[in-house]
Amino acid sequence: MPTYVYEAVDSRGQRIKAEIEAGNEDEAQNKVRMLGYLVTEIKTKAAKTRGPKLGTGPSTKKKTATIGNRVRPKILTGFTRQLSTLISAGLPIVRSLRICEELSKPGVLKNNLIDMTEDVEGGMPLSDAMAKHPKTFDKLYVNMVKAGEAGGVLDQILERLSVFMEKSQKLKKQVISAMVYPAVVITVAGIILYVIITYIVPKFTKMFEDMGVESLPVPTRILIMVSGTLSTYWYLPPIVIVGLYLLYKSIAATAGGRRAFDIVKLNMPLFGSILRKSIISRFARTLGTLITSGVPLLEALTIVRETTGNAVISDAIGKVHDSVREGDDIAGPLDQTKICDRMVVNMVAVGEETGELDKMLIRIADTFDDDVDAMVGGMMSLIEPLLIVVLGCTVGFIVISLFLPLIKLMGSLSQQTK
Predict the structure, then answer these.
(1) To 5 degrees, how large is the angle CA 315–CA 321–CA 325?
(2) How many CA atoms, within 13 angstroms, populate the side-chain half-sphere of residue 183?
(3) Who's near 166: CB < 8 A, 6+ residues apart?
(4) Average pLDDT of 158-182?
(5) What is the pLDDT of residues 274-319, one digit of tens each?
(6) Does domain 167-418 have CATH number 3.40.50.880?
(7) I need a labelling partner for 2 at 20 to 30 A (CA). Which of 10, 58, 64, 175 fits?
(8) Among the residues of 72-153, which ranges form H helices?
(9) Where does residue 139 rank: exposed (0-12), middle (13-18), buried (19+ CB within 10 A)?
(10) Residues 266, 316: contact at Cβ < 8 Å?
(11) What is the pTM of this model?
């Protein structure tokens, strides 16, 4: 069994360097974690380990050139969980940031951590340092960190935030996969059909002309007309696709256009139900997480409104915010907006009555996540045979259209021989 050399941090923030036997690197990391240590580096015994201890020296202050200005959600989630673990182990925030900085790969996050370490060393609160990088840390992130600093439970808030981000990413991936799969299949099928129509059909057309076939059947004439148009004006499909995309982007850039598209999305067959449930789940989970973290309700509703990603839902949450500001509860105005079904409204009302609104919102989010899982699975099982039927009918039409003249020609030849 291979031997691995690891460096880790214990619960008191002390550096540990030792060896452990395991079948592979993942198993070795799991064994070290079971000992209660945070792994900072692990390699096989034959490999050389890096020199100085992490987080003990001054920050490098050297930034790297980056492409783009955003951090991938997966990387940000990993940083959040890592920072939570270091702070819960008793390390000061500055040293925790330095360790995270040294463990980060060159990029936007590493550059931000360099700036944040300088700001926190200068006496700035961590939340204010994060607020200077809004493209990495949004309002939801900054406000939760601020609430954690005010309550002295920053490590717990960061852990809760990482869990929230993981669940949000999982839900987003489910919705995207549900929409990407049919789009990819349709695109590939469209390319194949385009090749058949522009390359195979013209060969049959020439063959019909050489054989002197007259009065072609209607399906064959339609197919030949489509083939001739696409062969002559081959540049039309990409122009139409690009034109439609640019038209969509230009309309979606306006408030009215974005609202119109959001209404269409919410009312699409099947896709609309999945999208609506996923948005309600994100709304409930975000609001529940913020309330649990100690963020005031009105401020939490404002943050949720900005993170829904749908103009229709955002406007509805804005109405709820205005009603709550005037002294109303949440359930009543939420029911009037008609964005949630009665079950959600009743659960919110029960949460307000029992004083456990945050727990009830998280429960709603979990329920809707399960519903989205089931709906995505059902849609996948429905889309596959539907696509097969549609493509089969299309290919069948092409085949029949090409062979009808041949069948007619063979019939006429058999009559002549008689």
Answers:
(1) 150
(2) 7
(3) 77
(4) 79
(5) 888 888 888 888 888 888 877 788 888 888 887 777 888 888 888 8
(6) no
(7) 10
(8) 73-88, 93-103, 108-121, 126-131, 139-151
(9) middle
(10) no
(11) 0.63
